[in-house]
Amino acid sequence: MSHYPEELQYSETHEWALKINDINIVTVGITDYLQQQLGEVEAVELPEVGLKIIAGDDVCVLESVKVTAEIISPLSGKIVAVNEDLEDSPGLVNIDPYQDGWLFKLELKDPVEYDELMDVSAYQELLAELKED
Fold first, then answer.
1. Which of 21, 70, 124, 129 is deepest in the core (most CB within 10 A)?
2. Are residues 93 and 86 in contact, defined by beta-carbon separation less than 8 angstroms?
């Protein structure tokens, strides 16, 4: 069964974001829904630290047994860290997409973007609509 932590914000393209306290650093990963759709992740191509991105940019690539997926940044800013553990253990994205399987951290350009992402109930409504289709 999928779970979606309440403290996260979610995008329509199935990425999650978590802002710690009031600093403008946000951790980004993919949702449990997306990792299930991808299947077993075999390789991860992470962005470069220092890269400036705009919300909607393709920022990294996940290769699975089923597909190669471009992961879109839900927010604008500058990459300040990447999860280097994924280079040796890409399956962490499947095992624990919300903790050990995070993808990158960015310094927000506009904190309002974070607040405009979906909360958990809005994201669950989106998933319910997808199941109906």
1. 124
2. yes
